[in-house]
Amino acid sequence: MADFSEKVIYQIYPKSFKDSNGDGLGDILGILEKLDYLKELGVDYLWLTPVFLSPQKDNGYDVADYRKIDSRFGSMEDLEKLIEKSNEKGMGIMLDMVFNHTSTAHEWFQKALNGEREYQDYYIFKEGSPDCPPTNWQSKFGGSAWEYVESLGKWYLHLFDVTQADLNWENPKVREELKGVIRFWKEKGIKGFRFDVVNLISKPEIFENDTVGDGRRFYTDGPHVHEYLKELVKDTEIEDFVTVGEMSSTSLEHCIRYSAPWEKELSMCFNFHHLKIDYKNGNKWELMEPDFMELKQLFQKWQVGMERGDGWNALFWCNHDQPRIVSRLGSEGKYWKESAKMLAGMIHFMRGTPYIYQGEEIGMTNPHYTSIEQYKDVESLNYYKILLQEGKTSAQALKILAARSRDNSRTPMQWTDSKNCGFSQAEPWLSVSDNISKINVFSQQKDESSILSFYKKLIVLRKEKKLISKGKIEFLENENKNVLAYKRTWADKALVVCCNLRETESRMDMDCRWKDYKKVIGNYNNELPCVQDNKITLQPYEFLVLEGNE
Ligand code: GLC
Predict the structure, then answer these.
(1) Is 464 among the domain residues?
(2) For 176, which of 73, 293, 371, 498 is 20 to 30 Å away at the CA?
(3) In terms of Cα–Cα distance, which of 200, 207, 223, 98 is closest to 155?
């Protein structure tokens, strides 16, 4: 398995990245226009969320044909051109493989509906009466995970939207079909794959009611998941490709197995535990202030645990399903810039491969929508209804969506401060944030002290210093609820990374050895840390990295 410790991956949500043909939707040729920008940023791979043929009920995660490009995004020729030009510039394209389910518009599902037994076996159909779903499992987008098909007298499983039917991986034919898809894209010059919710593919033999939860414990990291991944990777010969699995509600033990090189499954995993620290009672739809002690413990657990087990982390804060991190854990006001840089630095110096989600590199924020009409995401629209049914007022429900909706990260990329933020000539499919005059690429490109310039430095540093890409990690200040700090060591060198999580000054212990350490990077202009009584005082949201001999 190849080593991706020096690489940095950029995630593109094509619909919101750049519109080249003036229809208000981003597209593949739009990405092509921005390749120089991405090259200059310094990233190695571009992960595109799905651009395959799709009814777009879940913005492309409902795939109707894995080998066709949806015309909303362009054509196969456009994608081929993008692959070629990106490769020329030294950046590989990664595609998003949605293999847990297909759209119900997929030919396989349509054949299943038409009564073809062979294709019914591609999915998870269960006999049953119309008033009694096979189990009480819940869809992750709200409501039952089962849908009844009257003409067949059967239910089918959908862990996500009703138009996203779960595939039956127990069926070897399904596994062969999916291998064919990987081979198809490999031939086109695709350099890596992201596997959507891939730890949910293996369902249990017996489907039973969940008396304590929503069913996830039966299919998360399911019985044959490792076996199936090994088979897929081996038979398609992608052992040395960059591969990342999106792991929903997973465990450390499983992620070690998914990503340890000798297992020959994936290069790395996304887990989401650190992004639930502001979920009250673990419920995404209940707001709470972030629990920073929990954040620290989770990073420690996953960083140290993955190192011990030789697993590899995908490092990230943002993606197309998460609200913007600066709105969530940082500040949108006075310390916007400082906090965006601190949050970036915190994960970029960790052990793993960093991901940057479009717009994160300029500190984009949540848009603060105030009306339900502004939302487009299926999950947000479903939960708005559920929240109202639960008795919330519409103002309360909107407040929750403004913090938690997936649309928070899907607003158009803010290229300039002009109309439609340089994203499109037309009205964008999703409303633009109203802070484009303050937050846009154009202004940050000219500014050495911008968030964008800071990201560029972080990427260069990872490529320069083995301490960052290879170093061992140890957490410091474990009892300090204001500061997250850690040490990286490699050969006889050490790096100390200090992050003030608060909007006020915070203090942390100073090790006397650090006196001779040099500052590597920070988000304040001070040359030396402010030290008194063997304590370092960190400015609001300060990020400070020191380097010296161990
Ligand atoms: C993943 C995707 C998300 C999608 C879901 C179902 O979590 O990131 O956007 O809705 O899978 O495919």
Answers:
(1) no
(2) 73
(3) 207
* Å from CA of 375 to ligand 1 middle: 17
Question: Taking the model in full, what pTM does it have?
Answer: 0.98
DSSP state of 434: T
- Of 147, 161, 166, 246, catalytic: 246
Residue 36: its pLDDT value, please?
Answer: 98
Residues 193 and 140 in one domain: no
What spacing in Å lies between the alpha carbon of 196 and ligand 1's midpoint? Answer: 6
Residue identifier of the C-alpha nearest atom 9 of ligand 1: 321
Q: Which of 391, 296, 48 minimizes the C-alpha distance to 191?
A: 48
Domain that holds residue 161: 107-165
Residue-wise pLDDT tens digits, 101-117: 999 999 999 999 999 99
Please give the tally of structural domains in the chain.
3
Please name the residue whose Cα sits nearest to atom 5 of ligand 1: 61
For atom 7 of ligand 1, the residue with the nearest CA is: 197
pLDDT at residue 228 is higher than 90: yes
How many angstroms does the Cα of residue 197 sit away from the middle of ligand 1?
Answer: 7
Question: Is residue 339 predicted with pLDDT exceeding 90?
Answer: yes
Cα of 240 to ligand 1 centre, how many Å? 25
Q: Are 406 and 377 in contact (CB under 8 A)?
A: yes
Pocket test for ligand 1, best of 47, 94, 197, 269 (most atoms within 8 A of CB): 197
Contacts of 28 (CB under 8 A, 6+ apart): 14, 51, 69, 73, 74, 75, 78, 79, 82
Per-residue pLDDT, averaged over 368-395, amounts to 98
